Each structure stands twice: as structure tokens, then as C-alpha cells.
Amino acid sequence: MLDFKRLPLDAQLTALLDGEVTPEQKQQLEQRLATDEGAKRLYDKLRHGTDFGKHRFDDVLKEPVPLALVRSIKSAQPPKAPVAPRLSRASLKLAPTGRQALAGAIILFVAGCGIGYFAAGSTNTVSAPPTTVEIAADSSEWLADVIANQRLIARQPRHIFEVPSSQAEEISTWLTSTVGVAFRVPDLSDQGWTFQGARVFIGDGRPVGQLVYTSSDGDLASICFRKDNLPPVADDFKETIKDEIGVVSWHNAGTSYVLVGPSSEASLDQLAMQVATSI
Questions:
Q1: CB atoms within 10 A of CB 191
Q2: pLDDT given for residue 60 in this prediction
Q3: At how many degrees (to 10) do helices 9-17 and 132-154 cross?
Q4: Residue 91's CB: how many other CB atoms inside 10 A?
Q5: Is pTM beyond 0.90 here?
Q6: Which pLDDT tens digit goes with each residue over 37-96?
Q7: Distances (CA, A) of 276 to 106, 166, 170, 228, 249
Q8: For residue range 22-40, what is the model confidence (pLDDT) as tens digits?
């Protein structure tokens, strides 16, 4: 778990706005807002961004649902599971004889000795490589940080990058030296996404590079990457949805990548594959 006090101030204030802080953390932040003018200005900006996002979401909810979708939902019939007939089983009564009981005890004793021998021998073997489940657990923390960071910059649309796209050489040198990953900025203009600039943040204790894109509709998408030591796994592209945010993650050559954007973007997985071949 991340130490709340080590989070950037903007992340702490965002958690305060979302009501995701403990009473003690809330009291500490409110005391700082009362004495720190810079923190107060940052809090006001985040609050205004949150209000803007809420109004926009309310406008989306007011849009009418297509009639064809309503009809298809109403006409859908739930599947009926067939009821399997129950088969009566003849009752069996087992009453082992004395010789049978003795033989069974001997067999169990021998089997127990064999299991103990192999278990003891296995303590000296080399540990197996991490499984897919272990790999997923290792990467879950940084994915949570990526999603939290995406929500943060979406709430402040005027401050979505640290270095603008016009400084391409500065972005390449800065991110490569900070994150330790060589990369190219993918051109996604044919898919309707325009590169705006780059940022750096901390994900699960490691620096993460972030390339920020926007669409003509004002949507926000980001390509995030960081260096890791995970082995390659089969079926590496994994797509998940976290509330209003869609996430596609993959791994290649010692680097973990994430494409994060609006969950309403139906072609997010195809966009991720294009990014993987060009970054």
C-alpha cells in the first residue's frame, strides 16, 4: 500500500475531494489549506475541475438512449437452464474385514513416508518462476496509480502535461533518462488523437513516463510506460474497465506499457496494438 504522506500534494487534495481520506488525513489537509496559500490555490483549481467534470457527466446522462437499444433489451429473453434428472444411487455399505483394515493402514503409512521424502527433497530445488497470477499481483499497484493519475489530469484539462509536444527532443531526452526506457512518440493522428505533451509521475515506487493525447471531442488518452523485471507471458494484452476509464496493458522487453483512455472508446484495444508496434 502507498504511504499517503508520500503522495504528491495534488493527489492528496484529489483524494480529499473524492472523500477517500481518513478523518485524521482530512484534518491534516484542512489545517494545511488554512495556512498554505499555494495549497489553497491548488485545491480551488482541483475543485473547479471536479465541478466541470460533474456537469459534463450530467450532460451525458441527459442524452437520449437509442430506440433500437431499448427494443433489443426489452426483447431479450433470459436463457433457461435445462433441469438434469436426478439419478438414484444404490446405497453401499462398506464393512472392511480385519485383514483389509490392516492392509489399508500399511498402504497409508508407506504413502505418507514417500510424500515426506519428496517434500523434504524439494526444499533444495530452485524456486519456480513467478506465475501469471503473481505477475498480475506485482503490477496491480502501478496500474492503480496510472488510473488515479489519469483521473487527476482529466480534472484539470489546462494542465495535462509538463513538457509540450513542440519540444520533442526535450521529451525524448528527459523521459529516457528519468524512466530508463528508450521510446518513440507514436503518431495516432489517423485515429483522431493528437499528441499534446509528456509528464512523469511515480507508479508503485518507480518513475513512469506518460505521453498525453486528446481527441477532437475533448477526450483524454495516455500512454504510460516504466521499466520492470517481469518475464514475458502469453496473451500479454489485457483490457479492463475501471468505472469511466478503459485500460489496456502489455509487457515487452523489460518494459510495462499501459494505454488508458475513456471506457466509451470501443477501439482502445486496437489502438494499443498500434502503439505497441510504433513506440
A1: 16
A2: 53
A3: 80
A4: 5
A5: no
A6: 888 888 888 887 777 666 655 655 565 555 555 456 656 665 555 555 555 444 444 555
A7: 60, 23, 22, 16, 10
A8: 988 888 888 988 998 888 8
Per-residue pLDDT at 122 exceeds 80 = no
What integer pLDDT is reported at residue 117 of this predicted model? 46
- Residue 179 contacts by C-beta under 8 Å, 6 or more apart in sequence? 200, 207, 208, 209, 225, 226, 227
Q: Which residues of 55-66 are buried (b: 16+ CB within 10 A; e: fewer)?
A: eeeeeeeeeeee
The grid cell for 150 is 489519469
Residue indicated by cell numbers 483524494: 15
Backbone angles phi, psi at 125, to 5 degrees: -80, 160
Chain centroid offset of residue 58 CA: 26
- Per-residue DSSP letter, 201: E
Residue 199 has pLDDT above 50, yes or no: yes
Taking alpha carbons only, the member of 260, 206, 256, 258 closest to residue 232 is 256
Q: Which residues of 9-18 are buried (b: 16+ CB within 10 A; e: fewer)?
A: ebbbbbbbee
User: Which three cell numbers mark 52?
Assistant: 466541470
- Which secondary-structure segment (H or E) carries 223? strand 220-227
All cell numbers assigned to 95: 464393512
What does the alpha-carbon distance between residue 151 and residue 50 come to, in Å, rounded to a whole number?
Answer: 10
Residue pair 221/189 in contact (Cβ under 8 Å)? The answer is no
Residue 30 DSSP SS3: helix
8-state DSSP, 151: H
Q: Which amino acid, 183?
A: F
